[in-house]
Amino acid sequence: MALPFTDEQRQQIRMRLFESAQRHIMHDGVMKTSLDTLTSEAGISKSSFYKFYESKEQLFLEVAGTWEEQILSGSQKALASGEGMSSKERAARFVYAVFETIHQLGLVRFLREDLPQLNSFLPEDEARAHCLTSAKGIFDALQAAKIRFTAPDEVVLSVIQLMYLSILSIGDIGENFFPALHELVVSACDRLVA
Questions:
Q1: DSSP character for 176?
Q2: E strands within 3-153?
Q3: Spatial contact of 191 and 109, defined as CB atoms under 8 Å apart
Q4: What is the mean pLDDT of residues 39-55?
Q5: CA-to-CA distance for 118 and 171, rounded, in angstroms?
Q6: Facing residues of 149 across strands?
Q7: What is the C-alpha separation between 30 and 119, in angstroms, rounded?
Q8: CA angle, residues 108, 175, 168, in degrees to nearest 5
Q9: What's the rounded Cα separation, in Å, for the pair 83 and 135?
Q10: What is the pLDDT of residues 84-115, one digit of tens each?
Q11: DSSP state, 193?
Q12: Do 131 and 72 form a contact (C-beta atoms < 8 A)?
């Protein structure tokens, strides 16, 4: 009979599983990364995996959750460093920083190919609440920063969603993507932020 993992072993195994998932999701994607690969790299059996996560998808969702924290944390810093700026300028700085961080982390392929599959494992309301999934997380962060809008929330959400969808086509747009996105963000915030 196998002995249970100690707390320290559990922590180390979770870390190895997480690091393996993070590495493979960036190179291979969710579908091409097998549970065998993840457990082998973590040094555990497939049956032991379920002592740590309900599914491979849940592990990948945890990885995505840390990326979301990084994105919002970096963007919040951009918002906070905008002291003395107007709400319009602060909002534009925040929204642009979200998309810039997504690009810097190299998440575009993940967002386009893997995240829709992972979100199918979440309740719809929960999936929409994340900034990696939709405009809702970005919108909520703007509201938390006391940014007020001149248009109905649904319109603001739709505008942010359009910008979010545009980053999925960054390869098609090319080197002018970020200058064009900056113009869109600044113009949208000028019109939509009070």
A1: G
A2: none
A3: no
A4: 92
A5: 23
A6: 193
A7: 12
A8: 25
A9: 24
A10: 889 999 999 999 998 998 898 888 888 888 88
A11: B
A12: yes
What's residue 128's pLDDT?
59
With tokens 């994607």, the residue in question is 29
Amino acid in position 88 = K
Question: CA–CA separation, 127 vs 79, rounded Å?
Answer: 25
Q: Which pTM does this prediction carry?
A: 0.80
Radius of gyration of the chain (CA): 19
Nearest alpha carbon to residue 51 among 106, 100, 2, 97 = 2
* CA nearest to 126, candidates 75, 77, 58, 30: 58
Q: What is the pLDDT of residue 148?
A: 95
Query: How far, rounded to the nearest angstrom, does the alpha carbon of residue 23 sit from its chain's CA centroid?
Result: 16
Residue 57 burial class via C-beta count within 10 angstroms: exposed 0-12, middle 13-18, buried 19 and up: middle
Residue owning tokens 């300028």: 89
The sign one gets for the Cα dihedral 130, 133, 136, 141 is: positive
CA distances from 35 to 39, 53, 118, 155 (A): 6, 11, 15, 41
Tell me the mean pLDDT in the region 152-165: 92
Closest by CA to 190, choosing from 152, 138, 162, 150, is: 150
Residue 131 has pLDDT above 80, yes or no: no
Give the pLDDT band (50/70/90) at residue 71: confident
Per-residue pLDDT band for 37 (boundaries 50, 70, 90) equals very high
